[in-house]
Please model this.
Amino acid sequence: MINKFWLFFIIFGMIVAAATGNMGKLTQVILDSAQRGVSISLGLVAILTFWLGMMKIIERSGLTSILVRALRPVAKFLFPSVPLDHPAMSSILMTMSADMLGMGSAATPIGLQAMKQLQELNPDKETASPAMCTFLAMNTSSITFIPTTIIALRAASGSLNPTMIIPTALVATCASFFAAISLDRFFRYLQTRRGNND
Amino acid sequence: MTEIMNAVSAWAIPVLVVVVVAYAAWKRIPVFETFVEGGKEGFAIAINLIPYMVAMLVGLGIFRESGAFDLFVQLLKPITSLAGIPGEVLPLAIMRPISGNGALAIVAETMQRYGPDSLISLIACTMQGSTDTTFYILTVYFGSVGVRNARYSLKVGLLADITGFIVSVLICNLIFG
Model:
């Protein structure tokens, strides 16, 4: 998918450049853009280093376990089909906590673990169970308290106030999370109703 | 409202840092050594990002400077203005569910073009920060356990993304507009 996107940018861009006589600029644009790609990436080193250091402290200190405890009632409501003492439940809780703290790279392995345990509870191994669908909905729209990478990128781009977007991102992330959870319930309701009518 | 928002953005990170460090110290974690150990990975992550950034910025650079971008925005304006999404952030909205790093590069380019603290850039950053890479997560998570039928998951993920985008535009216009 991303291949098509990239190809479209380049081919369509070339065609328009040929038509509008902008071709002369393109060589310089390619060189400048590549240069900028490198400098932006390197500009992220500082804050990434800082943030990963903080993440390690969060991980070691067991701060996530506090969040896990706080989230338990929420998970119970979201995943009624998963027994509270099943290992899948604790993996789900760990994934939620890691996502919230912006620990994206730590969240994925735990998330995959949760999927494996949800698959054990799934009667039809080729079709996603309702709990899996909810888990995916939760993950694709994960609530993030502090979008660290974006803040780093804003700082690297010379923003006067890189953290300005924390509150707006929080509002937007909550909106998409609630949309995901409600849509998940809604589509499941539609499917089961259709199933009953057949 | 704006004052609360400003306070949140000023306090969020310092408070988090203090809470984390204090809690870890209370748990008798060697905070400094642990921090250094974790921070070591920062350089490698930034280096890994370089090819994504270069590829995406070159592609976008050609698309933008050729005049294709403006054409594209003009063509889709009737549709996007219906949803209230400014045409300038449309490429980001399309890329966001497909590739996290690709989208990040688009945000970088947007900030370069319009200035990091312009309304368009703030909307782009809010969009980027509010959702995750739907296609990637769906592929990896379901792929890892061999589920072929994802049922309504894609629909849910994409509709949630669109909700996030629209709310991003609304809230940014309200706070920063």
